[in-house]
Amino acid sequence: MSATQIKIATKLGATRPEVFPIALGCMAVSGIYGKTSDDESIATIQEAIDRGINVIDTSDFYSLGHNEVLNPL
């Protein structure tokens, strides 16, 4: 774990998966709010993952699946 990561987890539901308490919402990376850059969007997602965020809120509804193509996982 790097110095920039925060080790905080929230347990959810009966199965108790541990998730970071902050999620990354990705609707904006598909151009919903204006022009975007795929490289910057991928860098943003990767930075969130590097910092411990493990909930990435996306949908294939946004720009006909554009978010799923950008997912660096």
Word description of this protein:
- The chain is of the alpha+beta class.
- The chain has one domain (10-70).
- Helix content is 25%, strand content 11%.
- The strands form 2 sheets. A two-stranded antiparallel ribbon has the order 1-2. Strands 3-4 form a two-stranded parallel ribbon.
- Strand 1 and strand 2 (18-19) form a beta hairpin.
- The longest helix has 13 residues, at 38-50.
- The two termini are 18 Å apart.
- The model has no long low-confidence stretch (mean pLDDT 82).
- What is the mean pLDDT? 82
| SS content category | alpha+beta
Number of domains: 1
Main β sheet profile: 2 strands, antiparallel
Shape: globular
Q: Walk across the major sheet and give the strand order.
A: 1-2
Which percent range fits the helix content?
Answer: 10-25%
Spatial extent as radius of gyration: 13 Å
Could you spell the SSE succession in H and E letters? EEEHEH
**Quaternary organisation of the protein chains:** single chain
Task: Report how far apart the termini are.
Answer: 18 Å
Query: DSSP helix count?
Result: 2
Strand content: 5-15%
Poorly predicted tracts of residues: none
How many strands? Answer: 4
